[in-house]
Write a structure and sequence with these properties.
single chain; 8-stranded antiparallel β-sheet; mainly beta; 12% helix; 4-stranded antiparallel β-sheet
Length: 220
């Protein structure tokens, strides 16, 4: 019998990495001014462009290095397209806090970096997009022997200190309840692109994107 093979078509790429930062920078992050979210299930920093602050240059540099690996090495995106950091904010989850399912609008890539967390302080959970059929349509509930990235409706990442997760901004995700006795701190951010987007086969599929604030961009 000829050897069989499986080709995974059109997967949604989830990138995970890890890097550590100094305790001094962590303390500055913890001491930022936070405000409760309108949903009353967490808090975020008043500064929604926190990675543009010079004191967090170490975090920003490491994030952009990993973004480069994600977009250039794994996604094979053309060098003519440049990603820049749009906005970024700290997130604080007290015991009992959680995060509802959501996506990030007006951005292409999003990410989370974990400064303080443990196994009970809340996983990040990614949800199968509505209408995305995976193997079978959602109207058919076929049982599977294993829960894996092919058969699942949700995918959990259990973050550790120093972990960073990158994903397409349209991918729905939520944060499970902080069932620990610690305050969990993370950093969220969005990225977009500047450059010329076009198809070599169609000269009318052309778009030139610009970043409006040259003082706040972060290139790689």
């Amino acid at each position: 019998m000829p050897e069989a093979k499986i080709t995974q078509l059109w997967p949604i790429p989830l990138f995970q990495s890890n890097f550590l930062i100094s305790e001094d920078i962590k303390q500055k992050f913890y001491n930022e001014k936070y405000e409760r979210m309108p949903s009353e299930n967490g808090a975020f920093t008043e500064n929604k462009y926190i990675l543009h602050s010079p004191e967090y240059a170490e975090i920003k540099e490491n994030i952009l290095i990993n973004v480069s690996v994600y977009t250039k090495k794994f996604l094979n995106i053309s060098d003519r397209v440049k990603f820049y950091l749009q906005n970024s904010w700290g997130v604080k989850h007290m015991p009992g806090d959680w995060g509802q399912p959501h996506t990030h609008g007006n951005s292409l890539l999003s990410g989370v970096y974990y400064l303080k967390t443990d196994k009970e302080s809340g996983n990040i959970q990614f949800n199968q997009p509505g209408g995305y059929t995976n193997l079978f349509h959602q109207s058919v509930r076929v049982p599977f022997n294993e829960h894996d990235n092919i058969s699942c409706d949700t995918w959990n990442v259990i973050p550790e200190v120093g972990d960073m997760v990158l994903f397409p901004s349209h991918l729905s995700h939520n944060i499970e309840t902080n069932n620990s006795n610690i305050v969990r701190y993370s950093l969220a951010f969005n990225l977009h692109v500047e450059g010329e987007l076009y198809s070599p086969r169609s000269p009318i599929d052309y778009l030139k994107l610009r970043n409006g604030n040259k003082n706040e961009q972060s290139w790689f």
